[in-house]
Write the C-alpha cells for this entry.
Amino acid sequence: LEKEQLNKLAGNEITVCEEIKELIKFLEKTSPMKEFEEESFLEFVSQITIYSREEIGFELKCGLLLKERMVR
C-alpha cells in the first residue's frame, strides 16, 4: 500500500513538473495578450474559485493558485 502511494505521489510530481515546463515555454514565447484567448486559458487553468464579489482564484494545472481582486 505504501509503495502504491509513493508511486502515485511520484507520478503526480512528474505531471506537475511537466505542466510547469509547458507554462514556462508558453510564457517565454508569448507576448502580452491584448484579449482573451480561450485555447490558452483552457490549456493551463484547471479550476476557478470565487471567494467573494471582490476576489477570485485561478488554479493552474501545475498547482499554482493565482488570486485576483476584481476592480469595479
Notes: Helices lie at 2-29, 38-44. The mean pLDDT is 85.
